[in-house]
Amino acid sequence: MSEGCGRAMVAVRGLSKGYGRGASILEGVTLDVARGDFVSLIGPSGCGKSTLLKLVAGLVPPTSGAVEVDGMTPANARQLMSFIFQEATLLPWRTVLGNVELGLELEQSVDRGRRRAVAEELLGLVGLGDVGGHYPRQLSGGMRMRVSIARALATRPGLLLMDEPFGALDEMTRDRLNEEMLRLREEQGWTALFVTHSVAEAVFLSTRVVVLRAKPGRVHREIPVPFGFPRRASLRSAPGFLSLVGEVSSALRGLDGNGVEGGAG
C-alpha cells in the first residue's frame, strides 16, 4: 500500500527530547514514514516510543530537531491525525454512539444527521452495530477498544497514531483486533505509526518495524516486512513469519539490559 514516491506522511529529522536536567529520552532520531505505510516502533521500556508518538502528534514540544506531517508542523496537521491511547479513554456519561460522534462534533460543517450516520457505519465496521445505545461500563475491554478505534476513524484521518492500544487485552482478542485493524486500513487507506511491546504483533501489522534502543532513545534497526496485504490469521504460523519474528527478537536481544547496543565499545 505504500506509495514509493512523493512527500513522506511523517518526516522526523534529528529529533531530541529531554526533560529538565535529566538525560535525554530521545536523541537525534531521524525517520520517514511513507504515505500508506504501517510502521511499528518497538524497543525496551524507556526507549522513548510513546514520547516519539506524542512528538509527532504535537502533544509535547521537541527539545531540538523537527517533525513534519504531510509537509506541515504537527500543530497545523492536527486535522489529519487521530490518536488511539493505551486505554480506550471513552466518556462514561456518553453512549457508545455518542463517543464515536465526539470528534465530528468539533467539525461545524458536519450536521447531526451526518454525524449519526458516520458513527453508525463505523460501529458496524468494527462489529458493534448493535451496542450504540450502551454505555462504556457495559462493554468488555476489547469492545471498548473497538469503540475507541471507531471514534478515531470517524474524522477520516490520514495518519493514525496508536500507543499500545491492545497491550492490556488477552492474546485472542488482540489477534482478532489486529486483523480488524488491517481490514480497516485496506478499506480506508490511512498511514499508521504504532507502538507495541509485542514482536509478533509488530510483524503481523507492519510494512516496517523500527527497533529503538534506550538511554538515549535512538533508531537501532529498521526491518522491512515483505508480506503482502491482505494478511490472514494463518500468516502467524507461516515459516517466513516466524523467521522474521526471530530476526526482530534477535535485534532486541542485541541490546543489553539497559537498552543499549551490546558488543565492543
Describe this structure in words.
The protein is an alpha/beta fold. It has a single domain (10-253), classed as 3-Layer(aba) Sandwich (Rossmann fold). It is built from seven helices and nine strands, in the order βββαββαααβαβαββα. The chain has helices spanning 49-57, 96-105, 112-125, 141-153, 171-188, 199-205, 239-253, and strands spanning 10-18, 24-33, 38-42, 64-69, 81-84, 159-163, 191-195, 208-213, 218-224. The chain has a six-stranded mixed β-sheet, sandwiched between helices. A three-stranded antiparallel β-sheet has the order 2-1-4, covered by helices on one side. α2 crosses α3 (112-125) and α3 (112-125) packs across α4. The longest helix is centred in the last third of the chain and has 18 residues, at 171-188. The protein is globular, with a radius of gyration of 19 Å. It starts with 9 loop residues before the first strand and ends in a 12-residue tail after the last helix.
> How much helical structure, as a percent, in the residues?
25-40%
Radius of gyration: 19 Å
Distance between the termini: 40 Å
Number of domains: 1
Biggest sheet strand order reads 5-6-7-3-8-9
Main beta sheet: strand number and arrangement? 6 strands, mixed
Write a short abstract of this structure.
Helix content is 32%, strand content 22%. By secondary structure, the protein is α/β, with parallel strands linked by helices.
